[in-house]
Amino acid sequence: NPFDSDEEESTISTNKSRNGGGNPFDDEGGEEEEYVNQAVQDLEKYALKKSQDTTSTIKNCVRVAEDTMGIGVQTLITLHDQGIQIERTHEKAVDIDQHLSRGEKLLGSLGGVFSKTWKPKKTKKITGPMIGRADNHQQKESPADREALGLNGEPMKKRSGGSGMHDQTTVRGQLDAERDTQDNMLEELSTAISQMKEMSMDLNVEIKRQAPGIDHLSDDIEELNSRVRGANVRGQRLLRR
Q: Where are the transmembrane segments (predicted)?
């Protein structure tokens, strides 16, 4: 029968394929597993890169916060020195007032019968600096201000654990290490922000303390200028005679 050989060969090839000899689906399964592993590795590398970028960004934020704190400290020192300078200037104004009063008495007594009696025009008394006499209870920040700045809450508790050694040879270990680094830097950033809040309140208190003293000094200086101009006019009239 000429068909026996063809049928027998067809049966043999079918059995081989069923028994795994040259099964094309086995190769496809291996390629799929390799593709999945490669995709997972690519995702892990991408996650690690993004985590490193986040760490770099947080580090920059911490550096900016530290620089801002340095500027705030210098500003607070300068503002404090300004308050001392205002107080010294006002004390000098008091000395000028005393010398000017003696000069005004002398100018008033000069001229004799050829001149009218002269008295300086005084609108207010020079009382001297008032910065040191400021009421500290009125200058302190109110509870509402502290609550608005988040200064009444409890300090943030430090994160416990999670800072151990990690296997840097694996991507997962590197991710864990980056996460711990980010947590530590975020704690530093939170501490810096809290300190800047306290510093801002100190600046506010110092400005409120100095503002009335500056206004008071301005009024006294204006009064002294008016009296000096009056004394100059009196002296010029005496010289003409």
A: none
